[in-house]
Amino acid sequence: MQIGIVGLGKMGGNMRERLRRAGHTVVGYDRNPELSDVGSLVDLVDKLEAPRHVWVMVPAGPATHTVIDQLASLLRHDDIVVDGGNSRWTDDERHARELAARGIGFVDAGVSGGVWGLQNGYALMVGGDPEHVDRLRPIFEALKPEGPYGFVHAGRVGAGHFAKMVHNGIEYAMMQAYAEGWELLENVESVDNVREVFRSWQQGTVIRSWLLDLAVDALDEDEHLERLRGYAEDSGEGRWTVEAALDHAVPLPAITASLFARFSSRQEDSPQMKMVAALRKQFGGHTVESAKEK
Fold it and tell me: N vs C: which end of the chain shows fewer Cβ within 10 Å?
């Protein structure tokens, strides 16, 4: 199958490679000419055969809006745009409506996998009309992990990004729990090998997880996280999750508290946020601040 990808950063570039390894033809465009296969969006569209499929993998917000608006003027009836960034689900509804007026399909895809996706595959949560999702199924099958799980058609337009938003809200709370436990262990005199305590939890315990494995990796790199500043950004999904909970009167005390903990990290050098920052770097390649930058 043929597909275009706009945005070849940490995830988009690896997605291009994974699709090519699966035998698909991928034309990639990025503002960085060293990464790009073509010189412009116009060139990308011209390289694709109709009906065209273009996957947008750029930062949520204005950047995504701009790319989709440009594609709306370049694509034709029966083409499909996929937004694979971390867009807000309410933006999906507007994009789908505007593209539908031109006869262009729209699918929103929540993508999880970070910098490990090329090796392990990407979890995909997809929203859109069944006919559009079914046409793109070979692409989804190539990107997802091997086995029966890792892909879901979550519902209509917006459902994919809503599901990914909730996924990230849960991620906030899980990272916060590991971070709090780590800080408590670090502050008890009787425990003198916190890293190995974390490592011992990797087998046979109910709290074992990939996040725990990544925490151990981070502690192997910097046993007491002394090289990190206790600062962690929030990427937007945590806030949107709490806002959606308010709209639907659903109590989310753990996720809400973990979001507020991120805010506290901007006021002081929080030990817990050292662990959260380390985990974000491990699974997503997110930027961290060194202790010297404080």
Answer: C
